[in-house]
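Q: What does the assembly look like in three dimensions?
Context provided by user:
Components: three
Sequences:
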Amino acid sequence: MAPAKCSFVTTHRSAPKRSLRVFAVGVSLALVVAACGRDDEEGADDAPGASADTSDDGAADTSGDDTSAGAAEGSIDVWAMGTEGEKLGVLADGFMAEFPDIKVNVTAVPWDAAHDRIVNSIAGGEVPDVSMIGTTWMGEFATLGGLEPTPEGIDSSQFFEGSWETTEVGGVSYGVPWYVETRLIYYRTDLAEQGGFNQAPANWDEFTQLVQAQVDAGAEFGVSLQPGGVGAWQTFMPFFWQAGGEMLDESGAFTLDSEACVEALTFYDSFFEEGLTPPAVSDVPVEGSFTNGDVGSFISGPWMIGVVTDAGADPATWTVAHQPTEEAGTSFIGGSNLAVFEQADNKAAGWAFIEYLSRPEVQVEWYETVSDLPAVRSAWDDPALADDALLAAFGEQLEDAKSAPAIPTWEEIAAVIDDQIEGVTVGNTTPEDGCTTMQQEAESIGTGL
Amino acid sequence: MTTTTVMPPADTVDSAKASASGRVSRGSKHPVLLHVALLAGLILMVGPFVWMIISSFKTTGELRQLPPTFIPEEPTLTNYRDLFDRLDFPRYFFNSTVVALCVTAGNLLFCSMVGYALAKLEFAGKRVLLVLVLATLMVPGTVTFMPQFVLISNMGLANTHAALILPTVVGALGVFLMRQFISGIPDELLDAARIDGAGEYRIFFKIILPLCGAPLATLAILTFLGSWNAFLWPLVVASTEDMYTLPVALSLFAIGQQETNVALQMAGAVVVVLPVVVLFLAMQRYVIQGIATTGIK
Amino acid sequence: MTAAVTAENLSESIKEEVEAPPRRSRPTRKQNLVGWSFALPFVGLFVVFMAGPILVSLITSFTDLRSTDIRSPFGVNFVGFDNYGDVFSDPKFRKAAVNTAIFVFVGVPLTMSLGLLAAVGLNQGIVKFRSVFRLGFYLPAITSIVAIAVVWRLLLGADTGLINGLLDVVGIDGPGWLNDTQFALPSLIVMAAWKNLGFSMIVFLAGLQSIPVDLYEAAAVDGAKRWQPFRYITLPLLRPTILFVAVITSIGYLQFFEEPFVMTQGGPLDSTLSVSYHAYNQFSFGNYGYTAAVSYVLFVAIAVFTFIQFRLLRPKT
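A: Here is the predicted structure of the complete assembly.
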């Protein structure tokens, strides 16, 4: 709210020559209305496909030049979020040592602000050269016309398939995957042992058994699942995929309202119904409850390995497990991509930096700096990753992981899904109604493509 | 929400003027009960602030203990150190200060100018202007922030101090305050000056402004506070950390990734709140004096 | 500057300006120039940054502008009242509207009563340390809502918050406050009342000050008992002050945003979603046309509500 708003108003208006003014305003409005309106041409210009074909010289040049250091020089602004933002300087230093003609300026942007910041920067024309971009945002930014298509010279097969798909919007790739993450089940092996079920759950029934075993062994809650709120879909969707569900069909229409959805939502809700999971997010962070045995298991990504260890958990008492398998054993793949902005000042140098970050050895170095898992497959051969049992489990899951469709309206669709999940777990919505509503609202929002 | 308007308490309760003005004094039957009630109220009002300050010297772990502790078991300055070293709070503090000062200066000058014009000068469109300005007081921030944002971006000012300052550098409240007060200045003073050949600008700077100490002080505090505490607009318009103001920084660190470090959040809250309290304590006396010397208009 | 004077002054000055008989002579050219030269800096900035955006927002509410159009804003379609139709048929908006209404209809009287209570308490002649009390009661009102929200969120923590901790000491199992659909909005209302009662208190104090003592003395002579002087003297004379406080507080409360944003993100189950927050969410989804429409609906609600309050609480002369 703007400062110092006080108020009173009267309903009187007495302006001399009022009718003249009204007339003038009316005429101007009419002219404005006549001038406005979407043209098909403008629409075509904004479509991602069109910009790839008629893209400006920047893209055409970089595909040839992006590997030669000589072509790229000057300085680039790079944005990154969270811990990555704080630590990217390490890699930037390595890059600048090899490419002394290029200066890299890293700005750290907090996650919450990041989405709006990028949207606003594209709108305002004040873009950085390179930015880390959350996988679920690619669709939106690409359709805004904000991102530059990936040059031909970059090979897509070096990355995990699921992660490459997160860079594709309407069939065109914008940027490259940087690091990935996927979600596994973290569980207390000692409690599971005590409760009589200590093994990786092969299917949904076994997962329930594992959770129940934790409770039987004395945990207050066998599992900690997100009941709703921002991002709950990431914990829920794997079950949807495991039941064989798909978010979009081949024609690009939503298929949320399916048997798979109802089954998955019922299964998810069963933990809430049975009191096996806390009904609300606790103010005590999960690593604390996991370590002291209040919560027997949870589903999360690789960063929690370090967090749980730091919380003091004895490594012998816990491990991670592959997602349960019904029709599939799919997990959620997330991570971030790197992209160059269409309005950037120095695209050549930007792509050079991105290529540097995609080198397997640099990916490993990045893993060693912030524990982000490499998106480049060959990096996983490095002993730093191959020799770690927990990480190897993540590597295995990455082969069967999906993400949200890269559509511009994804944030809004995600909010719809989150809402319905909350309605079912916390409120009185039935899974059937939840899925129906998801489908209806998703259809009315559309994919934006 | 946030009614950021703040009326000065200064003049109202002054024991020197006790019996002369119409202060009610009755119910002196239960002074003890009254004071106890007031004290209880005071504890409730000030309690959370005390808690906030105490908590800022604890560690997050201790804050999560049950039953809750009062005095920190291991008082620590880590939170403050984190704010100033790891996070960029000095920068945010600087941003908040610069913006608040500029907005205040702008309001003081421009609102008093137009307030003078509306109070003492005749010109075409005067009535319309006043009504329109006052009407905008009811307009919610959500109406204007989106077009303001597009405008600022197209002016090439996105993510600058100018962006934080310009949309609020003039405000309707200032116009109202100054106009009200200046209306009360006797016309004879001004006429005498005009007869002596003084131009309107001289009259404004030499006669009007000096007399306006009280409302200017009031307006200064209100505007500064409002600007310091502003949230929605700085949230929308600052895209990089170096442009955050204190409330924005606090909110983003409180509901984002750092959500688990609650002691740090308390320290952040202290930094946001303390300067305002100090300023107000200081200015409160000034406003009282201002009123006393110029008399109640 | 007492509040009673302010409230009356404001309505009177507006009425004066607007209902004044036509002036006998038009201002001269020179007078216009001088007058406008004083007004120009203000007016220039005002038109560009306030009046302009208000108008643009209105126009946008009739288009289907999205964030994807931001680089070609004139290439959008006019869709008439479609956005408004969407707004009123949107269950989220309806929920937000109900929440906002509850917040205002419960919050405003609560805040004002507490403020009046405090003012009456402080106005007693025998109060010692009056300025300390006054400052203490007033403190929350001048602090940043974000800082307050962060502190209260900690206090209201379901498992480790101070409030539940204290309740625990006396054996009560406190509810989840911000996690509970029944308690979340009431918690926010109480917090808002706590924060803003200081403002009401200050204004009421000024109003109480301006009531002449002789009225009460006369009433005492006439044998008026306990609450009668309050009901028959104080309250009626406080009408302009009550109107002022009611209008200011309502306008603020109708726009409440920071509390749910920082404390609950609109949840649980949208039980703390406010109209402003809903507009902000739509803005971040890029639905600019819809955002503008919601904002205008809110604006109209504020205008209507203010008008009604003026009618109801208008000082009787």
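Follow-up: Chain A has two domains: 61-181+334-402, 184-333+406-445.
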